[in-house]
Amino acid sequence: MSDRRPRKRSKTRYGVIGLGHIAQTAVLPAFAHAKGCELTALISDDQAKLDELAEQFSVPNRFADSDAALASGTFDALYIALPNNLHCEYTVRAAEAGIHVLCEKPMAVTSAECEKMIHAVETAGVRLMIAYRLHFEEANLRAVEIAHSGVLGDVRAFQSVFAINVQPGNIRLEQELGGGTLYDIGIYCINAALYLFRDEPLEVTALSANNGEPRFSETDEMTGALLRFPQDRLALFLSSFGAAEVGAYQILGTKGNLRVDPAYDYFTKLTHYLTVDGKTTKKAFAKRDQFAPELTYFARCIQQGREPEPNGREGLLDVQIIEALYQSATSGAPIRLNLSGKRTRPSLDQEQQAAPVRREPELVHASSPQEE
């Protein structure tokens, strides 16, 4: 990759495209304490939403037309919070305009789209980071440290359940928009297994289930997955759009185990339950803003001209695994993998802290994905 350096500025200017629930409740508020970052542009075809949010967050530039936004010169990096099926298109368009990209996960719907995104940013000489917020969050990074400290002995297995009850009509249930449990929440379980084992799976097997409710007419209600890693380690997880909320994982070693519950949430504190020799100790991690750290980290990568850790290769690996899991669920057979590998992994060196958002903003033409 050529080393394109932005004009020297005291802060990296961000634009945000896709002003739905995650943007309004987490991304936009995070700029209040994202170091070295400035929110300078919003992009949406919903004019009322655009105007109200620009006023609420004091954003100087608002665009109803994405072409005009990309050509405006009002931001250095674009945060993409659009539906999954649009991630590739807007990453490529931003790269061609010389704009760095911080893209929500999943990186894209297909591995071919991921490859196209990687090629686009490398050709343009801009940076691409995938928004894996837990790569900067202390509870998860401490779990990585514990898993590889020897405290648990030889780590042999990982298990996780991530479930939410999704409202009918939500975009997560629309296949055309890249919906499905693995793309939305199963990806957290996959990514956690990879960074805790610090490796990629060799083989995957999956089963999808559907209880016949109309809201699941296009996507799986739930999918159970089994991943075989080198050294014959196993990871198993369940992702569900039709069950009461839960999001936890457990690492099992020959001397003990660590349960992180909750593990994936960004609205509450995360907690460790470490059991060794039959004795369990509990450690709670304070509630923090998990979005400001990734904005800050990416801004530093841009300013320093260095590659971010959760880059396009990270996003590609997860999408390749998701594709294989759905293929297995359809065929009923295990799928062998031959993944390219990843050189860098998240570690405590990346841990950053930011004060939590004081209050959840009032939503504008958006709603929570979960049923109340």
Which tags fit this structure?
29% helix, single chain, disordered N terminus, nine-stranded mixed sheet, six-stranded parallel sheet, 372 residues
Q: Can you describe what's shown?
A:
The chain has helices spanning 21-30, 47-56, 66-70, 87-96, 111-124, 138-147, 181-197, 292-304, 312-331; strands spanning 12-17, 37-43, 61-63, 77-80, 100-103, 128-130, 155-165, 203-209, 222-229, 233-240, 242-253, 256-260, 270-276, 279-285, 335-336. α7 packs across α9 (312-331). Helix content is 29%, strand content 25%. By secondary structure, the chain is α/β, with parallel strands linked by helices.
Brief rundown of the structure:
This protein has 372 residues and is α/β, with parallel strands linked by helices.
User: Can you count the helices?
Assistant: 9
Radius of gyration: 20 Å
| Widest beta sheet: strand line-up | 14-13-12-11-7-10-9-8-15
Q: Roughly what is the average pLDDT, rounded to an integer? A: 94
Total strands: 15
Shape: globular
Low-confidence residue ranges: 1-6
Give me the secondary-structure category: alpha/beta
Order of SSEs = EHEHEHEHEHEHEHEEEEEEEHHE
Largest sheet: 9 strands, mixed
Helix content: 25-40%
